[in-house]
Amino acid sequence: MNSNVYVLDTNTLIEAKNRYYAFDICPGFWDALIYHEVNNNIECIDRIKKEIITGKYDDQLSQWVNKSIPDKFFKLTTDVNTQQSFQEIEIWVQNNKQFNMEAKQSLQMELMDGYVLMQKRLKIESL
Q1: What separation, in Å, do the N-terminal and C-terminal C-alpha atoms of the chain show?
Q2: Are 122 and 81 contacting, i.e. CB atoms less than 8 angstroms apart?
């Protein structure tokens, strides 16, 4: 198992598409993501896939997610271990004084980031 697995968030993909790595400008970027997925260097979570494909627009990113990247790239977040790990992270953040109230509320409002953190934590614990 690769110990250097990077978990991508929604913003990583959307910003790449909207800015410097648009599909028509830099198709090699998207090919590199597929390469790194095949080699188990990167992954994402199912909630991010859902966010991308159920967005307002039927754009190149949603088409790429549906047609080019394998489903196994999007790890499930519905299992018991994932849910328990997310709860532990949430409790830790809420009890940690280094985070201000805005950051604590942000974790709850932006659950996607919490699940991305949790996915990386589960990956580290499984090594």
Answers
A1: 7
A2: yes
CA angle 38, 69, 39 (to 5 degrees): 10
Strand order, beta sheet including 42-45:
6-7, 42-45, 74-75
Instruction: Round to whole Å and give the CA distance between 62 and 110.
Output: 21
Pull the structure tokens for residue 106: 């942000």
Is 40:2 a contact under the CB 8 Å cutoff? Answer: yes
pLDDT tens track, the chain, 127 positions: 556 888 898 889 999 999 999 999 999 999 999 999 999 999 998 888 988 988 776 789 999 999 999 999 998 888 888 778 778 877 888 888 888 888 777 766 556 666 666 666 555 555 4
Residue 2: CA atoms inside 13 Å, Cβ hemisphere, count? 13
- 105 φ/ψ angles, rounded to the nearest 5 degrees: -70, -35
Tokens describing residue 123: 């990956």
User: What is the enclosing helix (H) or strand (E) of 43?
Assistant: strand 42-45
